[in-house]
User: Which sequence fits this backbone?
């Protein structure tokens, strides 16, 4: 049984605790910590886990074999570094860290440790629809890819959500997905600002991002974070001889009162429910078999941060911003995770 400690017991922390305590096999949540002690105590009491006053104490505990970090982005670096220093595997929700400099510090620490300990929570790589899309691409049946159109729509966002988070918090999923889908790097970013939605308050919402890949493939991403009608994730690849798109996800299609409709998920927990399950089960199984994490690596977390930084610059300047990555350390090979 893998003994896991969870740092950050907010929205996604609770969801991952639920899957580790009642859905997945071979795992027990033995410890929790949150900067808000009331939340941590309620959770610890409910699931019978030890509550630690700080994430660092949780990481040091002998009752914790592996760590899951679900706290706010700016706090990820300190916990990932502490887990590496303790030699414990750490699953960190996205983003790996909020600056590329912080990601580089994590890469250095992991390289000094000498083997992979870190996995980043880019769950789209585990989603059945994205996996099917990648496999269609791989068979060559639509010919060489030329473009991809994506949409990332949230029904609404919390009050603390700022305009650049449409890139650093939201489109960062497409940044990782595109690198994985095409086995390629994003080399430049542009960001266009359409007419502003009146539903987004001060936010510049929606945004239109354009990624250039080193192969010449172009990827456009619409982010709309106040779309109201639900959580809608789309993707279509245009190839030389055909197109392939993420399919409809609904198990049921309703026709009534002059309407033909599929339900739309409320949020990411519903849309990516199965993907998170697969992501965590594969992580647990890899660690239990004495292996290393094989999903999105600290390198992937770093690359996403560099592209995301370029996106923020492109939004501020209105210019095309090139993406410059550091040299890829040997530890991360050229393998494509998940
Ligand atoms: N993969 C995905 O689809 C998703 C990933 N996320 C990521 O998960 C992380 C958490 O997001 P949410 O759960 O939505 O936020 P949240 O605000 O609901 O929960 C975060 C929790 O972390 C706690 N926390 C903050 N600083 C802390 C610290 N220094 N030490 C310990 N606990 C601390 C807060 O008190 C709170 O309970 C973010 O990095 C976010 O980007 C969130 C939603 C979906
Ligand atoms: O990661 C997530 C949130 O943090 C983010 O705020 C949302 O825009 C994404 O759709 C969700 O998957």
Assistant:
């Amino acid at each position: 049984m893998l003994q896991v400690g969870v740092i950050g017991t907010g929205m996604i922390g609770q969801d991952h605790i639920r899957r580790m305590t009642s859905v997945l096999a071979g795992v027990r949540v033995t410890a929790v910590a949150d900067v808000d002690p009331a939340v941590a105590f309620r959770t610890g009491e409910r699931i019978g886990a030890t509550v630690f006053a700080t994430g660092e104490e949780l990481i040091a505990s002998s009752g914790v074999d592996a760590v899951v970090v679900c706290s706010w982005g700016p706090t990820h670096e300190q916990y990932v570094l502490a887990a590496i220093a303790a030699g414990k595997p750490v699953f960190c929700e996205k983003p790996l860290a909020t600056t590329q400099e912080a990601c580089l510090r994590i890469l250095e620490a992991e390289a000094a440790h000498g083997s992979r300990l870190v996995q980043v929570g880019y769950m789209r790589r585990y989603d059945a629809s994205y996996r099917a899309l990648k496999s269609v691409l791989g068979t060559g049946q639509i010919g060489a890819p030329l473009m991809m159109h994506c949409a990332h729509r949230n029904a609404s966002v919390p009050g603390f959500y700022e305009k650049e988070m449409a890139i650093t918090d939201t489109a960062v999923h497409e940044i990782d997905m595109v690198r994985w889908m095409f086995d390629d790097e994003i080399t430049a970013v542009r960001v266009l600002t359409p007419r502003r939605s009146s539903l987004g308050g001060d936010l510049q919402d929606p945004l239109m991002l354009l990624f250039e890949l080193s192969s010449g493939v172009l990827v456009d991403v619409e982010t709309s974070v106040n779309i109201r009608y639900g959580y809608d994730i789309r993707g279509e690849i245009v190839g030389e001889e055909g197109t392939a798109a993420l399919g409809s996800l609904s198990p049921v299609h309703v026709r009534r009162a002059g309407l033909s409709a599929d339900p739309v998920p409320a949020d990411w927990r519903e849309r990516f429910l199965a993907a998170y399950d697969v992501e965590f089960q594969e992580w647990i199984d890899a660690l239990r078999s004495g292996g290393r994490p094989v999903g999105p690596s600290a390198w992937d977390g770093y690359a996403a941060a560099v592209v995301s930084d370029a996106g923020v610059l492109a939004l501020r300047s209105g210019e095309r911003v090139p993406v410059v990555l550091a040299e890829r350390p040997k530890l991360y090979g050229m393998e494509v995770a998940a």
